[in-house]
Amino acid sequence: MISKAKITAVGGYVPDRRLTNSDLEKLVETSDEWIVRRTGIKERRILPDDQFTSDLAFGAVRHMLNQYNVSLEDVDLVIVATTTPDYGFPSVAALLQARFHMERAGAFDLNAACAGFEYALHVANALVTSGWHRKILVVAADAMSKVTDYTDRTTCILFGDGAGAALVEYSEEPGFIGAFMGADGNMGKALYRTGISTVMNREALIASGKVVQNGREVFKWAVKNVVGGVSDLLDQNGLDLSDIDWFVPHSANLRMIESICERIHFPMNKVLYSMVYYGNTSSASIPLAIHDGLKEGKLKKGDLLLLYGFGGGLVHCGQLIKCSF
Length: 325
Hints:
Peroxisomal Thiolase, Chain A, domain 1; 13 strands
């Protein structure tokens, strides 16, 4: 089916507070040199104790509205990709719908971990192309600091908080070229979050679970599946890597991205990533990389972007998108 949708606006948001590698040296046995060498991360952004994922989502949407001449009045659906909701319910999407007074919009959250933005875009494209919706607000937001164990030196160096937003609208000139997705539930034990409460109390919900990861196994799985997924996605759409203007993978770890690019023979100077100063922001890492690419003047209209998210599930999803924003 040929897409009838495109992205018309994007936005990004990170909190003001910085957590540097030097700060982490005071919490666990680590060093700036070790963290940079292993991950490429120099600092992360962290939410205040009294703010949560919906505040990140609000910031990203507000930034989008400040940057583009768009309106939310006719949005008919809100999808928020997150693994760190404020509550079990109401959803972050419903909270966002209320804060922006989108009275005609439905709302739901989607959980695909670090691939959440790409999964949400895939759903939005399908719903708009089908004709059931005309204008969908997609937000990826995760408050990873709330579920990070700061006594675990293997995971606390990785994560930060952030959000990205996008408007997906009907268009006769489609911006979505192709998609490829997959999952391996048997590998779920390599990356998971411990038990979650459903009480109407954000503090209790957040305190009920922490991220647990087997970094070595996730690294191997991600490299193998992203390399294979990129090949399948390009083959299905009759394209070659030389057609891609920018590769935007999930910003989990710079060494992982370098390994993927080495295997597919793609130049690092055509890769957008966001982990160096934001850390691994889970579902928000790809829209934040796009946000920074626009801010730095790297992206231009008509560019072909290859987005590829991967994470807990384990799940992965690739998207070929024309830059139309």
